[in-house]
């Protein structure tokens, strides 16, 4: 499947996960265009598709080679018989956004780039900096200690005293400030997010990470009680004048718990959240943000406050919940970055339509819906207001549908091995 010379613009999407496919679907649904998708390896998500052209590139951890490859894609798809066709460069994961920011000058010869630069990324996404911003603005976040992994082995007694002073008890959550560097590490037992039960477990984790070459900081946090359904998210779009123009919020029903996928939402109910809109807008205006961003937060049952965890500098992996509820995200990219500015004045639009985003078999999903959400979720299912991003009727290859069926059913196996706590 190729891209016609008559296609008016081409999205080039770095990545190959369900979020990358969702973007390709969204552009196809709204504008009837095909996207170029650049995974590191081909999987069933990007194979046998009618809506995208896959261009795999394995050396995505080599930024110089990757920049040369992406620039060549720009020449291939942007130069049409001597005229320049508009291209959008999009990323599905944090490392893609960092790569785009670093090589923006080179890549902007061919691509419109809807992301902030490295300085804004550093301030917003390095978790110790983000929590300082929350402190400055009075936005709630979990009690936190930031520990540097460079240098000597940690002094267990001093570190424990610091945790006590900051109100971080055990068990505690531990996660890296630099998710990109953490993702490149290899050591026994590594997870995206760790839970440690004692100072001994914590110091052992720090030693493993530093021994594997991690020189950044680790964020050690109060473990907020409650299950997956305490998690909430809010996705924002800010225009190029740094005004927040759109917000869509959601409540998680259940997350994945396999070691490499901890924190990935498997089911979300799109619904309004006034607190998230207000607090997220304050943070983004202070940052002077442009483009999409997404906040993770958890409702703390101890004090009723939403505790903000982080800012993601892009659409989330499961952002299709926004489009499924009536606001196709592709429109924001095209209108703001290719057609002169987002239509509709400068007012803030807040999504209010309820919709169920779900990648699980419904029978499996129903096991994990908390009691207070059951009636609402069943109402959405009964009224057919639920969506799976891979279930796209324009895809007609039977091999693709076989992959989708197998991957959906495989969630039974994954949840049996790594099931959410009740």
TrEMBL record:
GO molecular function, one term: ligase activity
UniProt keywords, alphabetically: ATP-binding, Ligase, Nucleotide-binding
PROSITE patterns: ATP_GRASP (PS50975)
Domain named ATP-grasp: residues: 131-338
Presence of keyword Transcription regulation: no
InterPro entries on file: ATP-grasp (IPR011761)
Source organism superkingdom: Bacteria
Record's protein name: Carboxylate--amine ligase
Species per Swiss-Prot/TrEMBL record: Paeniglutamicibacter antarcticus
Lineage of origin: Bacteria, Bacillati, Actinomycetota, Actinomycetes, Micrococcales
């Amino acid at each position: 499947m190729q891209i016609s010379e008559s296609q008016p613009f081409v999205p080039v999407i770095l990545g190959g996960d369900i979020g990358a496919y969702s973007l390709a679907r969204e552009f196809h649904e709204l504008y009837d265009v095909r996207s170029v998708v650049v995974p590191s390896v081909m999987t069933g998500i990007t194979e046998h598709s009618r809506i995208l052209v896959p261009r795999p590139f394995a050396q995505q951890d080599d930024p110089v080679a990757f920049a040369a490859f992406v620039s060549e894609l720009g020449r291939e798809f942007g130069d049409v018989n001597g005229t320049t066709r508009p291209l959008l460069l999009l990323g599905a994961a944090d490392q893609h956004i960092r790569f785009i920011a670093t090589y923006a000058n080179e890549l902007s010869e061919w691509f419109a780039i809807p992301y902030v630069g490295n300085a804004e990324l550093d301030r917003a996404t390095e978790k110790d900096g983000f929590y300082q911003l929350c402190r400055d603005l009075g936005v709630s976040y979990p009690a936190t200690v930031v520990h540097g992994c460079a240098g000597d082995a940690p002094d267990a007694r001093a570190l424990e005293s610091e945790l006590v002073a900051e109100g971080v008890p055990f068990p505690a959550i531990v996660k890296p400030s630099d998710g990109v560097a953490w993702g490149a590490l290899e050591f026994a037992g590594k997870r995206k997010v760790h839970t440690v039960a004692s100072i001994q477990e914590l110091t052992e984790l720090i030693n493993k990470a530093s021994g594997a070459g991690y020189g950044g900081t680790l964020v050690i946090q109060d473990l907020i009680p409650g299950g997956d359904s305490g998690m909430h998210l809010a996705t924002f779009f800010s225009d190029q004048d740094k005004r927040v123009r759109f917000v869509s919020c959601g409540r998680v029903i259940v997350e994945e718990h396999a070691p490499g996928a901890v924190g990935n939402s498997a089911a979300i109910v799109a619904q309004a959240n006034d607190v998230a809109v207000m607090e997220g807008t304050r943070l983004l205006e202070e940052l002077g943000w442009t483009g999409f961003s997404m906040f993770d937060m958890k409702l703390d049952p101890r004090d009723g406050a939403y505790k903000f965890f982080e800012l993601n500098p892009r659409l989330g992996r499961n952002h299709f919940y926004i489009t499924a509820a009536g606001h196709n995200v592709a429109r924001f990219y095209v209108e703001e970055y290719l057609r002169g500015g987002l239509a509709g004045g400068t007012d803030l639009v807040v999504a209010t339509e309820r919709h169920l985003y779900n990648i699980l078999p419904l029978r499996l999903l129903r096991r994990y819906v908390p009691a207070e959400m059951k009636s609402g979720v069943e109402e959405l299912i009964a009224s057919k207001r639920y969506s799976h991003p891979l279930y796209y009727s324009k895809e007609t290859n039977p091999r693709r549908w076989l992959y989708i069926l197998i991957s959906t059913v495989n969630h039974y196996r994954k949840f049996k091995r790594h099931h959410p706590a009740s």
